[in-house]
Amino acid sequence: MPRIQKLGHEMNIFANYGLGGAVLNVAEGIKVYPLGLEAHGADIIASHANHVKADIVITLYDAWVFSPEIASRFRWVPYLPVDHDPLPERVKMVLDSAWQPIAYSRFGEAKLREAGLDPRYVPHGIETEVFKPGTAKERTTARERLKIGDDTFVASMVAANKGTPSRKSFPEALWAWKQFNARHPDSILYLHTHAGPEMTGIDLPLLIHKLQIPDKAIAFCDPYWNLIGFPDNYMREVYLASDVLLNPAMGEGFGLPIVEAQACGCPVIVGDNTAQSELCFAGWKVPGQPFWTPVGAWQFVPSLEAILESLEEAYKHRGSTTLAKKAREGAMAYDADVVTETYWKPVLAEIESEVSAGNVLEPVMAEAVL
Question: Which residues are 156's β-sheet partners?
Answer without folding.
Answer: 190, 245
